[in-house]
Design a protein that fits this description.
By secondary structure, the chain is α+β, with helices and mostly antiparallel strands. It is built from six helices and 14 strands. The strands form two sheets. A seven-stranded antiparallel sheet has the order 1-4-13-6-7-8-9, with no helix packed on it. A seven-stranded antiparallel sheet has the order 2-3-14-5-10-11-12, with no helix packed on it. A hairpin with a 6-residue loop joins strand 8 and strand 9. The N terminus is likely disordered.
Length: 357
Amino acid sequence: MGFFKSLKGSHPEIVGRESSRQEYAPPPGPPPSHQPPNNEQWAPPPGPPPGRSEVHPPPGPPPSHTQAGDEPPPYHDWTVIEDTALLPPPPSLGHSTSPSGNASLSEADRAHEWCRMYPLIQPHQPTPMQHDSVKNGEIRLVRPREYQGNLSMTGSGRWSGLTAPGGKDACLLSSLPLYFAVPDSPLTTEMKKTIYFEVRVKSYGRGRGVDASSIALGYCAMPYPTWRMPGWESGSLAVHGDDGRRYVNDTWGGKDFTSAIQAGDTVGLGMEFSIPDAPPSYGSSPAQTPKMKVDVFFTRNGAREGGWNLHEELDAQNDLGVDGLDGHYDLYAAIGLFGGVEYEANFHAHLWLYRPA
């Protein structure tokens, strides 16, 4: 028992060793391998983190909380009305169809495709003889293959024609331009240029009745499909005698303009090219400046009956622009016919009932 007692009793020497054991703690600061160079102290950068910016409220109270004494905004003086005479006229309303048109849709589609294949040709410098011939009214008419009937020159610048009953649309064109873009442009000459011709309608209605016969006066840039009335395709304008409407690159129904051309009427169509009233300013874009001022006028029996400005405000959805007619292309006289029409065309000034200024 003493032996076991000695094992189970207290052992002061062991207790003494346990009580003398030290407690360890980590040293302050980062480990030596993570010390900043030269013992510098690291601190966070000033300001918010990179992904966030400081937002400050705008100065002053919010709009819904006006300060006492603030004046309300002034009222618009509705008694002051701008002079609408200075504004451009509104666009004329066009028609989707003509009440007397006799062209088929297939003919129109063929003409559109033809114009896409043969774009307008650039103007050229005429010879002095050609230019003088036009000035003197020595104009010849070119008979297209679609024309059915008689056509003869009865004098210098004077033509007489008689279309066959039931004839389809055909367009007579002058052999030379009445307007040469290179030598006649007011941007070059600084002078107004006027072109004009007249047609006397002797009779209508040979063959299919008055309603199925008519005439149109116009101008065309070349080339032009001669089985189409002038004014229907690109680079052309005209006044049509059956409905009295004007057509400018308009294959639809035209715009109301005048009354129908009657048998016995002498009608004329002219164009005036001049320098714009407001010349382009420095730094202005060419697309914002009209190329030149162009006025179209119509006469009946020696009196000026109406007209329009080529650069009038256009209907963005229906109007196709004035390409080819703005004075930068040569323009030929055009006479459109269908049905039976007896007529006389005059290009010499001394034969006209109207005298352009």
